[in-house]
Design goal:
Blueprint: H1 20-38, H2 46-50, H3 52-61, E1 68-71, H4 78-83, H5 121-135, E2 143-148, H6 155-167, E3 172-177, H7 188-196, E4 202-203, H8 210-213, H9 223-239, H10 242-246, E5 250-256, H11 260-271, E6 277-282, H12 290-294, E7 305-307, E8 313-315, H13 324-338, E9 342-346, H14 356-361, E10 366-368, H15 373-385, E11 389-395, H16 396-399, H17 403-411, E12 418-422, H18 439-444, E13 450-452, H19 457-469, E14 474-477, E15 499-502, E16 507-512, H20 516-528, E17 533-537, E18 540-542, H21 546-555, E19 559-566, H22 571-581, E20 589-594, H23 604-610, H24 615-631
Parallel strand pairs: 1-2, 2-3, 3-6, 5-6, 9-10, 9-11, 11-12, 12-14, 13-14, 16-17, 16-19, 19-20
Antiparallel strand pairs: 4-5, 7-8, 13-18, 15-17
Helix pairs in contact: 3-11, 5-6, 13-19, 15-17, 20-24
Bound molecules: thiamine diphosphate (TPP), 1-deoxy-D-xylulose-5-phosphate and magnesium ion.
């Protein structure tokens, strides 16, 4: 398809004066560009299809070269990238060196924050507005946050709304309500928003009660019946936006987010309003592409797909080797079958954590708390206190939200909560907001916490069993990749014990986590070069197997620790601290991990290779140490 409009757009100024028809044509081109991108890579799709008109309308009514716009989370940023002059690079999106799949200030001044975690848009927009009012009072800069109904329940959103109302700042929050997070939205707010679907349009600017007054009983009709009607009418009337109005926001809506002329009318109406305003917009996740509307969960971020001759979708086959996520969810399923005390929490990532079967078969012991990671952890702590065995199944990067609850509600109380930290390590095309490369560091600092990392597929079930019977908190980390199985006589899991896979006089590689098979391969490569290097599968980051590690330090030429975590505070750091504390020499100890920088987006294997965290890189690091060591 040709892109006569998109190919000409240098900046949103170019679309300002579009007629309705031109805007429709632009919307069609944007959707076509989205289809093309998802036909050859996994990318966010349904959410982007749903905000096409909203994005066009916003850029036509506001001037974001000075006004401020934050798209919450940022996964629905694609149309915005297209209308802010990035069409020519669009096919590079989510590829290493290409456009990021999230906002990126380095790409465009129209992207203000690099984001990927949900819920912060209202806070940052309020901050922008507060500083703009202070520093540029003449400019009258507008501030707009677009937040999804899935992100809305995050506690921080309410913290920000509370603050915005207190400051009475002129800011616009657009609630992009498509009835979905990645999975169907859950909880009390979800029910509240469901009710708003049937409410009539309400304009909080007018505080217009005439609609209500029209419903008052008229003479001649039975009063009781009329009062019933009146009560229903009041109820419906109140459902629209009472919650937001009570919080100090003016509420306007709902507005059909795909009816661009109406949407623009609403945006014009709210643009110059004083004080905080919430515009409630209904959109359809996947709009314009029927299969995505029918199955928005799959099409949130689908694997690449094409159409066959019958126009049916043909997904590209996934790897046949089971992913860590699937092994974990299957193991959890088995343990839930055996033990009624085992319960599991997800923070709106049922699909990503592959928990659908658990949700369906154990509905009473499955808890989707929404995008509320801090709450998930404190909630799990409460359940643990009452005798349950909670598993908190959250991506490593999103668990960062719960740092304080891990500290206070779990570690300080020494409660038996199991943390399954999925997507730990380099996650790939989502990039720096999603790489889970800090958890070795942030988990091991807390007293009572046991921190583990399976070295391969066969470590997963025994480590989970260990966690579910241990009298205190335990974490497991595993990456977003298929899980290799290392052929060996698997050593049983023992608290604080590593597994010696092989020994070598020239040096020892200590693998922390799923790079264990790569470390073995590295040792094989080194063998070809005449170096005799052993491999240890650490399994425990805390407590450390100091006996085995110190032996390696004492008896072999060098020790190289390997982990998919930042070097700062990670496993290698723990080994260094322990060795130093024991008064051992450490000149022949090196830590391989992620340097002190944010890792870009790209293919996981390529990123790991670039970081020297593949077999060749590990072998290179080891070889250089063997060389250095001969000089010691
Ligand atoms: C803190 C955090 N937890 C979880 C996620 C994973 N996540 C990304 S998008 C999304 C759903 C967001 O729903 P909504 O805000 O309604 O956006 P929609 O996709 O429906 O437009 C989730 C759970 C995240 N990005 N950040
Ligand atoms: C926006 C977001 O956070 C998710 O959609 C993320 O892209 C999912 O990644 P996974 O594919 O690893 O579940
Ligand atoms: Mg949504």
């Amino acid at each position: 398809m040709e892109f006569p409009k998109l190919s000409q757009i240098q900046s949103p100024r170019d679309i300002k004066d579009y007629s309705d028809q031109e805007s429709d044509e632009l919307a069609q081109e944007i959707r076509e560009a989205l289809y093309q991108v998802v036909s050859d890579r996994t990318a966010h799709f349904a959410s982007n299809l749903g905000v096409v008109e909203l994005c066009i309308g916003l850029h036509q009514i506001f001037d974001f070269s000075k006004d401020r716009l934050i798209w919450d989370t940022g996964h629905q940023i694609y149309p915005h990238k297209l209308v802010t002059g990035r069409f020519n690079e669009f096919t590079t999106i989510r590829h290493q060196g290409g456009l990021m799949g999230y906002p990126h200030p380095g790409e465009s001044p129209y992207d203000l924050f690099m984001t990927g975690h949900a819920g912060c848009s209202v806070s940052t927009t309020l901050g922008l507005k507060a500083a703009d009012d202070l520093l540029y009072p003449e400019d009258d800069r507008k501030s707009v946050a677009v937040i999804g109904d899935g992100a809305l329940p995050s506690g921080i959103v309410f913290e920000a709304m509370n603050n915005a109302a207190g400051l009475n700042k002129d800011m616009l929050v657009i609630l992009n309500d498509n009835k979905m997070g990645i999975c169907p939205r859950v909880g009390g707010l979800a029910s509240y928003l469901d009710k708003a679907r049937t409410a009539p349009f309400y304009n909080g600017l007018k505080k217009d009660v005439s609609w209500l007054l029209n419903k008052l009983p008229v003479l001649g009709e039975p009063v009781a019946e009329q009062l019933m009607h009146f009560k229903d009418a009041v109820k419906t009337y109140l459902h629209g936006g009472m919650l937001f109005e009570e919080m100090g926001f003016r509420y306007i809506g709902p507005v059909d987010g795909h009816d661009l002329p109406r949407l623009k009318e609403a945006l014009r109406m709210v643009k110059d309003v004083k004080g905080p305003v919430l515009l409630h917009v209904f959109t359809e996740k996947g709009h314009g592409f029927e299969p995505a509307c029918a199955d928005p969960v799959t099409f949130h971020s689908p694997a690449p797909f094409e159409r066959d001759e019958n126009n049916e979708i043909v997904p590209i086959k996934k790897s046949s080797s089971p992913a860590y996520t699937n092994i974990v969810s299957q193991t959890v399923y088995d343990r839930m079958e055996r033990d009624d005390k085992v319960v599991i929490m997800t923070a709106a990532m049922c699909a990503g954590n592959n928990l659908d079967k658990i949700r369906d078969d154990f509905p009473e012991r499955f808890f989707d708390v929404g995008i509320c990671e801090s709450h998930a952890v404190a909630f799990a702590a409460g359940m643990a206190k009452s005798g349950a065995r909670p598993i908190v199944d959250i991506y490593s990067t999103f668990l960062q939200r719960s740092f304080d609850q891990i500290f206070q509600e779990v570690a300080l109380q020494n409660l038996p909560v199991t943390f399954c930290m999925d997507r730990a390590g380099i996650c790939g095309p989502d990039g720096p907001t999603h790489h889970g490369v800090f958890d070795n560091s942030y988990m091991r600092i807390f007293p009572n916490m046991v921190v583990t990392a399976p070295g391969d597929a066969s470590d997963v079930a025994p480590l989970l069993d260990f966690a579910l019977t241990y009298d205190g908190p335990v974490s497991l980390r595993y990456p977003k990749c298929s899980a290799a199985t290392v052929e060996r006589q698997v050593a049983p899991i023992e608290l604080g014990k590593s597994e010696v896979y092989s020994s070598g006089a020239d040096g020892t590689i200590i693998a922390c986590g799923a790079l264990f098979p790569d470390c073995i391969e590295a040792a094989n490569l080194l063998k070809e070069k005449g170096l005799d290097v052993g491999v240890i599968n650490a399994r425990f980051i805390k407590p450390l197997d100091t006996e085995t590690i110190f032996k390696a330090l004492d008896e072999t030429g060098f020790v190289l620790t390997v982990e998919e975590n930042v070097i700062a505070g990670g496993f290698g750091s723990a080994v260094l601290e322990a060795a130093n504390g024991a008064g051992l020499r450490t000149g022949h100890l090196r830590c391989l991990g992620i340097p002190d920088e944010f890792v870009e987006h790209g293919d996981r294997a390529e990123l790991l290779s670039g970081l020297g965290l593949d077999a060749e890189g590990i072998a290179r690091a080891a070889e250089s140490m063997a060389g250095q060591n001969s000089l010691i």
